[in-house]
Amino acid sequence: VSNVLALKLQQYAALGPQDVHLVSEATGVTTRLVRPREDVVREGDRPQVVRVILDGWAVRYKMLPDGRRQIISILLPGDLCDLNVYLLDRMDHSIGSISTLTIAELGREQLDLICEESPTLCRALWLENLVTTAVQREWTVNLGQRTARERMAHLFCELFFRLKAVGMTESNRCEMPLTQTDLSEATGMTAVHANRTLQDLRRSGLIELQSRMLTIKDLDALIDVAMFNRNYLHQGTEQRVNQ
Amino acid sequence: VSNVLALKLQQYAALGPQDVHLVSEATGVTTRLVRPREDVVREGDRPQVVRVILDGWAVRYKMLPDGRRQIISILLPGDLCDLNVYLLDRMDHSIGSISTLTIAELGREQLDLICEESPTLCRALWLENLVTTAVQREWTVNLGQRTARERMAHLFCELFFRLKAVGMTESNRCEMPLTQTDLSEATGMTAVHANRTLQDLRRSGLIELQSRMLTIKDLDALIDVAMFNRNYLHQGTEQRVNQ
DNA sequence: CGGGTAATTGACCCGGGTCAACAGCAGTGG
DNA sequence: CCACTGCTGTTGACCCGGGTCAATTACCCG
């Protein structure tokens, strides 16, 4: 399978060749290129299409009136930006690119078509929606209860497993285009403290991080520090169980 | 309208009498009573039905292996517990009652029926789903960026406006069955600090809180402290705009 | 009146924020 | 080829918001 979205949806349901074809078609109609560090959508915009990240990293974020910024979630290749957003009046948050992005834009008709043609895909899309929400819940726990060290470790665990699911890891390594400032905004700490936390994780022999490349030197230990429980990602468990 | 769910969904679409009837029927088939401080669903359970809170308060929560607990969101009358959860293999979090609950349980068929019979309701359900996710995102910002005082103020603002939408406020007052420990677990602080934060808000003349009743003495000021932006609740804006 | 939960207080401490300077490095233009 | 600029990462000194621990005081209910 060459299409990232298809690859991702396969975590949630066994797709047939027909399904894969449908997805490839749909994500091929309208695609857009976005340069690094630009806004894809801005808070207040009227959402018109559903977007799919085909390549590159992006973040959802929200800003407080006084300038504080929180990264709300990280969008990786294969990720959808809100199934059915166009039902909402206005965007309540922004999406910004981290690296160069290739994104597909799907109109309402295209999605309706997919759901009519393939119940399997429809199901997979629903699941991806449910999982995205589950991830958001886990972020709530992360920010609410974990210490800085634990939060950072948790973020790395999540990203690693999500990337792995779309074939973007090599053994224990993956790209990490997020700067320390990005990491700090995702984990609710200052950039200075993010720096110190990373040094701490390095010193403990858990990770290596240099030139935008993350190496997880001791995954089990990292998982342990983060109290990471993979369940919330619901990767590859669903199709076996429900019908 | 006497049905809370119908009342809630009216924020998202103009329901006809037919729609209201459908909702009332569906939420009347199977109902359950839950005593205060019990688990409704537990992490690890296989979700079988979609639940609707008809009366009482509940919370979603997650626990870390070492006992730390984070309340992930608050469920008020009219709230749904995850449209289509039964697609997921296992619950990744728990739901616990705060006060005595009356909940309706809807099977897959009932929901399918609703969506087939009424596109308006289907749309409203989707919107409620999108809004729930938006709330979760705002909680991420709350926990990640705001100070204790701001977080607590924000929580009160959110609850007040959500309760207002289902007719559960009287001018500037509403019930507040959450204990200080609950509030602390929702805002990611210790119970001791929650206590001090509440005293601070009281001393500033923003709120009164006693015998499970919250009075907002200065809503504008509270909104200001919380940097509360109502937009993310998407209350009563959508139906006018899209089609 | 007794027992249990929820709220409150005080003393002390620490994780993480703040401020400010500085270093490394890539890209740009002269 | 080098000076200049701007971003990212690093470091140190200091401080404060909020955590910890432990005791006490309401309450509520049977």
What is the gist of this entry?
The structure is a homodimer of 243-residue chains. Chain A is of the alpha+beta class and 243 residues long.
Question: Overview of this structure, please?
Answer:
- Two copies of one chain form a homodimer.
- Helices cover 44% and strands 21% of the residues of chain A.
- The first copy, chain A, has a four-stranded antiparallel β-sheet with strand order 1-8-3-6.
- In chain A, α3 crosses α4 and α5 crosses α8.
- The longest helix of chain A has 27 residues.
- The interface between A and B is large, with 50 and 50 residues.
- The structure holds a DNA duplex (30 and 30 nucleotides).
Tags for this model:
globular; four-stranded antiparallel β-sheet; alpha+beta; 21% strand; DNA-binding; 243 residues; homodimer
